[in-house]
Design goal:
Main location (chains A, B): other
Shape of chain A: globular
GO molecular function (chains A, B): acyl-CoA oxidase activity; FAD binding; fatty acid binding
Structural class of chain A: mainly alpha
Distance between the termini of chain A: 35 Å
Radius of gyration of chain A: 26 Å
Oligomer: homodimer
Protein name (chains A, B): Acyl-coenzyme A oxidase
Cofactor (chains A, B): FAD
CATH architecture of one domain in chain A: Up-down Bundle
Helix content of chain A: 55-70%
Family (chains A, B): Belongs to the acyl-CoA oxidase family.
Number of helices of chain A: 27
Largest interface: A-B, 101 and 101 residues
Largest sheet of chain A: 3 strands, mixed
CATH class of one domain in chain A: Mainly Alpha
């Protein structure tokens, strides 16, 4: 398909409303025709596909590459050793590089393309996506974002071509989330003009370091120094050699394989102990601070806290990548579960054909809100990527904070959601969802699971969201500007709380599907949680100090962060509804948006505790959710078809894109039966 | 430890209240001392262990066996091929048999011992538990329960010694849950006095049959006949040979390996096609129906429906076994997560030591209600085993229905719960919970996942619970007797509904922790759901017929079944509190019971929709849940220590039973570091 045709379709599909207007017009009630409950019109799948994806050419190119290399499309679950799996991942990477892709350039300059690649590869092999993340986002990203032009010039091409595989060696055995607690030392020896990098005790051994066990030749090592030139200046990052060109370990470097893991065995995670490893002074990645020949320290940034934040801030790219990959996995799992459920028949009325399992409300209630959430996450993720690109371009400070919050929150929300969702999708496919061959491994949580932990433990990341919201909330009363994503919080916190009692009891479907009601409800929740959290923290802090006060309120903190992310998701979803000019696609998207929001409003107890939603309204919402599940079921297959994952990538005989082939025939053949 | 000492301790610990009285006295308020919120006393772990487990000798014996065979304690995640894993499982089984255990005798006569063995082995290797289930409960069980003395005599010893490995070949490619839809044919050839067993089309190929791919020499094949002697008599079971003594396939039998699965690769699942396989007439398992030399059919049971129910009813044992194994897995995962969280430190107040992650409310809210649920499931499972044994002894019809319902419901509830719980436990252990070596594979859902599907899909099983409750509910109005487990439903459905408005608003802690309130609340919910479901079904059935009416109400049906199981769990948990005479143990058990019940009452929206729990009461419950999480946290480690899983079985360096060893040292050594 030509890029031109895509561009034309894009123009047809996307209304030219600027983002700001789109989200405010999302608050306008929809015409009645979109509200009434009835069959959703069958939309044109290609139109929807093109509305969703504005990089179809990249997708076609990448997936075509793997069509030409079927030997690379093997599943981890098929009894590979970790060494075999790692070699497979390296082969995949080499094929991508040989085809002319330049992942390091993407990461450094063409961000949207990089993140799209991460999402696309997640369905090839999650280990491959992570390998890409380790090499380009973590290792390469640390060099180009924490280093200066000198480092970039020296290493860029070798990193890009994988001639210089490297690591980002942050996590230690005893310190993961608490980065400020890292203990690896870097001390400057002014006599030799070298840093001495040292692991002071076993707890400080670097652990889970991707690329370390087999491939890594160098590592970026973030280390607070115990003594010496950087004393009291906080965490800094150094480039430390691990292996020479022949692959032999560098003097003073001890590396062991972290061994088999529950999943992602295509990644060579290793544990590293440094025993007084000497590296040149220039190996300090010195964008935020430098040390001269005499050992004098200087930094353009005034405080150690700001420097620490700026250093860690450069890790946002990794979280954006994980969010994209996780959405990719979710799309894959849903594609299989929806298609299988639509064709698998079991039980039926007496003397009548059996019924498709997707026609059972139990299956619908599992899969339809998940499909709605997947779409919402997809649009929210697009927004995140867009903001990230803008931030990289403008370096605007408010935007930096916004992207930091949104990437932390969406990474946490998406990866937790996807992990749970995959399990449910597997269960929805019964026994056939448990087969690894031919790969239904998209239905296996083993690999996606750890996404909840790495690049920031989800519980910790969610706290960062709340912390930033609180900070901005307090600042806003002092007149500072607010980022677009959370500007609603100020308005709402000052707005009429508690709710209007009339609205509390309103049960009309046109009200319940009015975007104004839905957005207001989710925003009300975040604002209310923020408002009450601020008050509780103030109260407790006076008595027990900030650390304990925060932890006393921890569940409240987490609820606020999730609520905020869901309100962002809804707004982006509704903006997409508005941006979609094809009426049929739009109807389905609107139904998904409503289902997503109503599902959250119904299940979140916060609304009940506040009497924001009266019991009879809750019951009306539940009836509407059931009805919407039924409606969406009618277009569920086209909705996953629009993800347009080619069969040779999905590799699931129970989730084939065509309905003209008996779905079981490939399955039988793969097991060895002639048919 | 001697059996005698155990018996003495048992007497000390268990109050001699008969089961019936125990559950009614569970409704009495506890003395105030047990209600007040404060630190729970540190109890004696050995006392608790002995209170929990009345087969300590079996446990010691089985686990000692594996201590002597460390070569068998390898984890599936460590890069084994499926063939290697299957051989490992066979070796384990042989060791068990060589030690003098007779699993077939246990299953046939010493039921409690059999189920206990299933639970114990679940922590050795889940594939081993399933292998045991396939050979003894499914294959052996079908022979002894569906066959007659003749079959038992002929096969019992060979099955027991694994000289005759066999299968229970029920599931077909296109029919799993809908057993009545099976299509494999068995037709009697009166001329040769043989059954001709045939697979009419590819959809009827037997699929996922455990023991089939490598080991099976025979299979029990439940088949409805398309024509011939059994015409219109429904599903019957036949013994069909698969392989001769040399392992060669029997004429007309085609078997293929189902290949790699997401987990449980130690089980040789196979797919079987029968092409007119001839078996002697005597191979019909004829306890419920027989066919004579002339082809005349006779059955002691009057209707095909009853015969079908009786045949499937004999599968309850499998569900009891899976429930036990699933509780075992949950205990293992919790043991690791709680111990690790208690010692892992991360972050802390300024200039103070870091804090154990278990001290964070976020971690407590994940793990403490789970610990409470684990105890509740454990006691409920014990009750199920007890009832099963009684049913086998008395063959009482009401008890048969009770055990059928309870085993279906508990299997579904436990396996779903455990699957979700393992994932949360893994996340609670961060990166170190993701290592497969040394095995933290208890934190991996891959194997436990499929428990939700096999031996009855959970969604289907839950419907059976509701169906039986409805039947008995209707019968009860005609004066039929009710089983003990659900007798409350009748009383409550006739009792004062809706709730007393005073109780709805009562927020006092002594009220909220009063067993009478807790039991009443959970029973109210089930009774109300049953009552309203019956009314809805009546209404819809008139219009759209029973099948559609049922499916229209499906989510209501599932909610009822889960609610019923939770009310059973609470009553058994409170009965255990009453039966425990050690005051310290009892205090902890009571706190767990309260936490379990309050957690369910708070999170289930049903209570809010009915206004049974007013918002201010809900908030008081939430505060109490938070406080109870804090209390239970104080005894969380002893509570998992009381499960007494030996370190060599748990094989988790981050979950060691002793606190005297640095938990990381074994971990470091395993990775290859000298320390």
């Amino acid at each position: 398909m030509s890029a031109q045709r895509v561009a034309v379709l894009q123009r047809q599909l996307q209304a030219t409303i600027p983002a700001g207007e789109a989200s405010s017009s999302a608050l306008q009630p929809q015409p009645t025709s979109a509200i009434a409950l009835r069959q959703l019109p069958r939309f044109d799948v290609t139109l929807m596909e093109h509305f969703l994806d504005n990089q179809l050419a990249l997708k076609a190119e990448v997936y075509e590459l793997f069509r030409q290399h079927p030997e690379l499309l093997v599943a981890e679950e098929e009894g590979m050793t970790k060494e075999e799996h790692r070699e497979l991942v390296r082969k995949c990477l080499r094929v991508i590089l040989a085809a002319g892709f330049s992942p390091m350039s993407f990461f450094a300059r063409d961000h949207a393309k990089y993140f799209n690649l991460a999402e696309l590869l997640s369905l090839v092999d999650l280990s491959l996506t992570v390998k890409l993340g380790v090499q380009y986002s973590l290792w390469g990203g640390s060099v180009i974002n924490l280093g200066t032009e000198r480092h970039r010039r020296k290493y860029f091409d070798d990193i890009d071509r994988f001639r210089l595989p490297g690591c980002f060696a942050m996590t230690e055995l005893k310190h993961g989330s608490n980065v400020a607690g890292l203990q690896t030392e870097a001390i400057l020896d002014v006599h030799t003009d070298e840093w001495i990098v040292n692991t002071p005790d076993d707890g400080a051994i670097k652990w889970w370091i991707g690329n370390a066990a087999e491939d890594g030749k160098m590592a970026t090592v973030p280390s607070p120094d115990g003594s010496g030139a950087l004393d009291d200046h906080g965490v800094h990052a150094f480039i430390v050699p691990l292996r020479d060109d022949g692959g032999a370990l560098w003097p003073g470097v001890e590396i062991h394989d972290c061994g088999y893991k529950v999943g992602l065995n295509g990644i060579d995670n290793g544990a590293i102990r440094f025993t007084s490893v000497r590296v040149p002074r220039e190996n300090l990645l010195d964008r935020f601070a430098t040390v001269d020949r005499s050992g004098r320290y200087s930094s353009p940034m005034t405080s150690a806290t700001k420097r620490f934040a700026a250093t860690l801030g450069e890790l946002t790219g990794g979280r954006v990548g994980l969010t994209c990959a996780s959405v990719g996995v979710l799309k894959g799992a849903l594609t299989i579960a929806v298609r299988y459920s639509a064709q698998r028949q079991q039980f039926g009325p007496p003397d009548a054909p059996e019924v498709a399992v997707l026609d059972y409300p139990s299956q619908q209630m599992k899969l339809m809100p998940m499909l709605a959430t997947c779409y919402a996450l997809y649009f929210a993720k697009n927004k995140l990527v867009e903001k990230y690109c803008e931030m990289k371009r403008t370096k605007d400070e408010v935007l930096v904070a916004d992207v930091h919050t949104l990437s932390a929150g969406l990474k946490a929300y998406t990866t937790s959601y996807t992990n749970t969702a995959i399990g449910i999708c597997r269960e929805c496919c019964g026994g056939h969802g448990y087969a690894a061959r031919p790969a239904a491994s998209s239905l296996c949580t083993s690999s996606a699971d750890i996404f909840q932990t790495f690049e920031g433990d989800n519980t910790v990341l969610l706290q960062q969201v709340a912390a930033l919201l609180l900070k901005e909330y307090r600042d806003s009363f002092r007149g500072s500007p607010l980022a677009a994503t959370w500007s609603y919080l100020k308005v709402w916190a000052q707005d009429s709380l508690p709710a209007n009692p009339l609205v509390t009891h309103e049960t009309d479907v046109s009200h319940l599907r009015d975007p104004a009601f839905l957005v207001r409800a989710l925003r009300y929740r975040s604002a209310r949680l923020l408002h009450t959290l601020a008050a509780r923290l103030r109260k407790h802090s006076r008595r027990v100090g900030e650390f304990t006060a925060w932890n006393k309120c921890l569940l409240h903190v987490l609820a606020l962060s999730r609520a905020h992310i869901e309100s962002v998701m809804l707004v982006e979803m509704l903006a997409a509804v508005n941006a979609c000019v094809d009426p049929d696609c739009r109807r389905s998207l609107k139904a998904l948006a409503d289902l997503f929001a109503l599902d959250r409003i119904y299940t979140d107890i916060t609304f009940r505790n506040d009497d924001y939603i009266a019991p009879e309204k809750a019951k009306a919402i539940y009836r509407l959710i059931e009805a919407l599940c039924g409606e969406v079921r009618g277009v569920a297959v086209p909705l996953v078809d629009a993800f347009a994952i080619p069969d040779h990538i999905l590799r699931s005989p129970i989730g084939l894109s065509t309905t003209s082939v008996d779905p079981y025939s490939e399955y039988l053949a793969a097991a060895g039966f002639d048919s």
